[in-house]
Specification:
globular, 6-stranded parallel β-sheet
């Protein structure tokens, strides 16, 4: 369905041939694998003005997550919104997302959803550490991750470094534990973001 079939590929070819400059791409709910991601990658080529990318509920694997991140970085996209939810990217895919978030092109990200990706502690820690570069976040959804002690400390450090504009923070089912919740609450008390 979606980007995997001939219709999806034809759509990508038309948009590329027409020289369209896209601001937002939402490829959610396509359940695509490598073939669908190839079409998505083709769509991203030359889209340096892209500010929003949503890839939710696609079943994106570890290898496909690495491919998606590499494509975003190669395209030079200055994403302000990146939603990556309910995928199967695991720790290695999360590490690729962490590296992408730490890149200079994504320093202006304002809306990040990284949830339900089977990142485990190793991957969640990589994303939490990369958040120290995402100082302009206004919305952050890290639900259904595994922070534990090390991840909560990295998240707390990232929260302290944000510019104070964070309005939405979602950490449901984050595996923070009592000590982790205390670390995050202490960081929020110190930086006092205007959470809604």
């Amino acid at each position: 369905n979606g980007l995997r079939d001939e219709t999806g590929r034809a759509m990508v070819e038309v948009l590329r041939a027409d020289g369209c400059t896209l601001k937002a791409i939402d490829v959610s709910d396509n359940a695509f694998g490598a073939k669908g991601l190839d079409a998505c990658a083709d769509l991203l080529v030359g889209q340096a003005k892209l500010t929003s990318l949503k890839a939710q509920n696609n079943g994106i694997s570890m290898a496909s997550a690495r491919q998606l991140c590499a494509t975003v970085l190669e395209a030079g996209c200055g994403l302000e919104r990146f939603h990556f939810h309910n995928n199967m990217s695991g720790p290695e895919g999360a590490a690729a997302i962490g590296a992408m978030l730490a890149s200079p092109n994504l320093r202006g990200v304002r809306d990040l959803r990284f949830s339900g990706t089977r990142a485990q502690l190793e991957g969640t820690l990589k994303v939490a550490e990369a958040l120290r570069h995402a100082t302009r976040l206004t919305a952050l959804d890290l639900c259904d991750n595994t922070f534990q002690g090390p991840g909560s400390l990295a998240l707390a450090a990232a929260l302290r470094g944000m510019d104070g504009g964070l309005r939405v923070l979602r950490l449901r089912d984050g595996g923070l534990g009592a000590a982790g919740v205390a670390h995050v609450c202490q960081a929020l008390a110190e930086c006092r973001p205007p959470l809604a």
